[in-house]
From TrEMBL:
Species of origin: Acinetobacter terrae
Protein origin, superkingdom: Bacteria
PANTHER family in alphabetical order: SEC-INDEPENDENT PROTEIN TRANSLOCASE PROTEIN TATA
Gene that encodes it: tatA
Key words of the record: Cell membrane, Membrane, Protein transport, Translocation, Transmembrane, Transmembrane helix, Transport
Protein name, entry field: Sec-independent protein translocase protein TatA
Function: Part of the twin-arginine translocation (Tat) system that transports large folded proteins containing a characteristic twin-arginine motif in their signal peptide across membranes. TatA could form the protein-conducting channel of the Tat system.
One Pfam assignment: TatA_B_E
Record's subunit section: The Tat system comprises two distinct complexes: a TatABC complex, containing multiple copies of TatA, TatB and TatC subunits, and a separate TatA complex, containing only TatA subunits. Substrates initially bind to the TatABC complex, which probably triggers association of the separate TatA complex to form the active translocon.
Length: 77
């Protein structure tokens, strides 16, 4: 056993509530929740940016008609 019973946890919770009060604990909960939400948002943004960098690039070779004609004239002439 870990040495912690339910009564230890309950007594600890009561002491924390008496020391800090419910309003401070509520504000602390909001702050921690906001921090976790921002952290998850930044992780998703980083994953999106990383996946965009890892996508293969398609390079298309474009030739103009004048290049094709000059090549044909050079080879046939």
């Amino acid at each position: 056993m870990a040495g912690l019973s339910i009564w230890h946890v309950v007594i600890f919770a009561i002491v924390v509530i008496l020391l800090f009060g419910t309003s401070k604990l509520k504000n602390l909960g909001k702050d921690v929740g906001g921090a976790v939400k921002d952290f998850k948002k930044s992780i998703k943004e980083d994953e999106a940016a990383t996946s965009a960098l890892n996508e293969p690039k398609i390079i298309e070779h474009q030739t103009s008609h004048s290049d094709v004609n000059s090549t044909v004239k050079t080879h046939s002439g």
